[in-house]
Each structure stands twice: as structure tokens, then as C-alpha cells.
Amino acid sequence: MGLIVGAETNDNKRTMVPEGTHVARCINYIDLGRADSEWEGKITKKKRVVLTFEFPEHKAVFREEDGPQPLGRTVTYTNTLKDKSNLKKDLQTWRGKAFTAQELLGFDLDNVLGHPCQALVLHEPKKDGSIRDKIKSLSKMPDSLQAPESSCEPWKYEIKTHPKNFDKVPAWCKEEILSSDTFKELHGDKSETQTEVRTNEVPF
């Protein structure tokens, strides 16, 4: 009998961030570039960015040698500050103030990198019936509340400065980056020469 392959299931339960409002900190952001996006059967070009938040008060052991490490969750945004954008909404509630007309012309995400916030997490069903812990909104930290220091040095990845920090990017993000219009315009098409993306996954 030859090698049998199939769809494996992972019975290990994922450690969830509890529902509710928690202290969180932005530990990185990742530029996914511009690519096709489908909504209600219509395909448009959109630029997207991923923000990763660490939850210092909620931890799990991913590797015994590291001990308990903070849980982390990502949020993918359309990279725009138009009126109805989720990024604009979350950044304003995180800052605790509206953007000025000048800021709307170009806001630097470095301003939030490494900074704490409060994140509302809800548990929602996925299409396969499993439950995910999803960040639903961000808000400003009260002055009376102190956030623990980050467990790692905050970092960012931008396609224009590739390959800086590309080794830190999760595999699923790498695939989207390499296939994006932005990457191909700046660095050429790598999809044919790099068919498999290997990375040291972060523990969340």
C-alpha cells in the first residue's frame, strides 16, 4: 500500500481570548499591498493592512521552553481613511478624537505601533461551525489604567522596503504580499519562483 493522504483535523483546542474588553497593544503592522477584492460579486482593487494586537493579561504555553506567552490576534483592514472605513473608525476611537482634515490626507501608522488600547473581543461562529475570538472594536486606554510592557519589540513590514522584516511575516500574509499588484510593480513577480512560503510562525 502506498502513502495515504487526506484532510487532517486538529483536535487541539485553540486558547481563546475571553469575550469582553481587554488591555491590548499593537505589536506590528503588515502592508499587504493592493490586490483584487470581491464584495457582493463585484471585484475591485483595494489596499489592505494587517494590525496585530497582543493581550498581555491572557497567556498560553506554545513552547515549553518559552513558558506562558501573551495571546495575539490580528485585524485586517482596507487601508483607507474614507468615512465608512473600519480603519478610520477604530483609529479614531483608539485615539479618542476625530481626525483633522490634514491628518486625513495621510496618517502614519507608526503613530500607533507599540501603543496600548482597549480591545472588545467577541466569540463568533465561522462558516465551518467553529468559534473564533474576534476583535470587534478598539478604544482609548483610560488615563487611570496602565498597560503591561510588550513581550517583544514592535515591528512593521512595508512592501516598499522589502525584504526588511519579511522573515517575521506569517506565511498567509507572505502569500498575499507576493501576489499583490503592489509587490509585482515594485519588485517583480515572485509567484512563479517561490511556490512554497516557509516561515517561523509566531505563536498566534
Describe the structure.
- There is one protein chain.
- This protein is an alpha+beta fold.
- The chain has a domain at 20-159.
- A hairpin with a 5-residue loop joins strand 4 (116-125) and strand 5.
- Strands 1, 2, 3, 4, 5 and 6 form a 6-stranded mixed β-sheet that branches.
- The chain is 15% helix and 36% strand.
- Mean pLDDT is 88; it is low at 1-11 and 193-204.
- It is built from 4 helices and 6 strands; from the N terminus they run E-E-E-H-H-E-E-E-H-H.
Order of helices and strands, N to C? Answer: EEEHHEEEHH
Tally of helical segments? 4
What is the strand tally? 6
Global structural class? alpha+beta
- Helical fraction equals 10-25%
How far apart lie the N and C ends?
Answer: 37 Å
Which term fits the overall shape? globular
Specify the biggest β-sheet: 6 strands, mixed
Mean pLDDT: 88
Tell me the β content: 35-45%
Oligomeric state, counting identical vs distinct chains: single chain
- Give start-end ranges of low-pLDDT stretches: 1-11, 193-204
Rg to the nearest angstrom? 19 Å
Summarize the entry for a quick read.
The protein is built from 4 helices and 6 strands.
Secondary structure elements and pairings:
Blueprint: E1 20-39, E2 42-61, E3 68-78, H1 86-95, H2 101-104, E4 116-125, E5 131-139, E6 155-157, H3 171-179, H4 181-187
Parallel strand pairs: 1-6
Antiparallel strand pairs: 1-2, 1-4, 2-3, 4-5
